Amino acid sequence: MHRPVYLEIPESLSIRDETKIKHMSQMVALTGLDTHKFNAALEGISAIHSALSKDIRYDNMLPWTPGMLDKWITVVSSNRYFATGTTAKQAHLIPFDTSVDPSGVLAAVNERYQHTTDNHVGYFERELKENGVYKCVACQWVVNYLTR
Asked: 10 Å Cβ neighbour count for 19?
């Protein structure tokens, strides 16, 4: 069974939305609903962050804090739609998939903002095959345009 992934993007963007455009991102929040294994994973993430922070300058690494969804602790991951500056100039540019941007709203953004392979996100789910083996398959996209 394929469950849709919902994306929310504005119906249109203007140059006045410069800050919004730069920081537009996709994100996912995972929760273990306070299970022992998930809490152990949170401790592991914290330990990895602590170990890495010893070798990375403090101003090059963000602090790690778990997110919250209602009363549940989450692990949040996000990725921006666009790259700018040197990062964008040195990266391989790719078009937006029509399932992500069916009306071309994101593709029409100022050329200062580039969608690169680093900005591309794939969504997958685990599916049990008839032979009892699990396989990762791409999820279906559903775009929800914001009307704010």
From this structure: 8
Cα separation of 15 and 11, whole Å? 14
Whose CA is closest to 34, among 8, 84, 83, 69? 69
Give residue 24's identity as a one-letter amino acid code: M
Sign of the alpha-carbon dihedral angle for 115, 143, 67, 21? positive
pLDDT of residue 145: 52
pTM of the predicted model, to two decimals?
A: 0.65
Using a 10 angstrom Cβ sphere, with 0-12 exposed, 13-18 middle and 19 or more buried, the burial of residue 82 is: buried
Looking at residue 24, its pLDDT comes to 84
- Amino acid of residue 28: V
H/E element holding 74? strand 72-80
Task: Give CA–CA dist 13/28, Å, rounded.
Answer: 23
